[in-house]
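Still learning. Show one?

>
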Amino acid sequence: MTIKKTDAGWRVDIQPGGRGQRRIRKTFATKAEAQRFKNVTLGKAAAGEDYGPRKRDKRRVLEFAQLWYEVQGVSLKDGKGRYGKMRHLCELMGNPILASVTPMDIVRFRQSRLDAGLTPSTTNHDLAHLRAMVNVAIRMGEYHGDNPFAAVKAIRLPETELAYLTPEQIDLLFNELQQSRNAHVYLIASLCLMTGCRWSEAQQLRAENVRHQRVTYVDTKNGRNRTVPISEDLFGRLQRHGKPLGRLFPQDAYQAFTEALNRSGIELPKGQRTHVLRHTFASHFIMNGGDLLTLQKILGHQTIQMTMRYAHLSPDHLADSLKFGPQSPRRHFVDTDEKWNTETGRKKR
């Protein structure tokens, strides 16, 4: 069992299992690396572990997508959809051997997606799915290499504007909703506005989840149920609207809401059509003095960071900047009662 200096570097030549057993030869750039390898290998042999070099993993990324679905995706609400997305991404990459994928390969793949017209947000989500796929394989001990997707940072995105409706716009919109032929759209929109729920949560609400002047949303985006109190008026209208059991709103009302919004003339940022009602609830809640922790529970956010997006609307937000910040220079203001020396900044005598 030796370490020798050769023209190529420091060569390790050992038989960890003893004479007649497997022989290992490997060359390193430095003697320290060679010594570490020798010590680790001999230690594994003494502990009865496999000390031989690991065989190269030749499995392709599609196989790891299948593994992800079997381990984690099968239990997720949108597992099949996400699995389909992963398979599509793996095929777009050419289904390479995972062990051969480098971070630069991923950067080039991301750029090709951007060049194809996808948004930075979409490409970030794509890589997050693939990164999670490999993380599951590593966590389950099915893959022993590094996760190449973890080395590529997400594209930094500007914070999106969270639009909300003013009281005048709320009246304008709900006047249009009252004129709709859809029998459900007005109440669905009222739930979103008055409880901060998502449109899908209100659309799928069941009569048995409206009890004691409270609404309980189940099967939510993050899988956690939450209960929100409602006004006596809204509670009565919900009770009179549907049957004692089953869905209150069996007919989809999204298109009816879109038509009413278009008639109102209210313009919103892209992607915030029905979500503006949730933002409106949250924004008015904070502007009227509500606290962020309570709002987090009402909206069902898993982390306070999501709720903090509304913090700037608080009446007290950064108010201390006026109290503790520097005062405006007096020389820049004209006082009609007193004259100031513009050179010294003091009042003339």
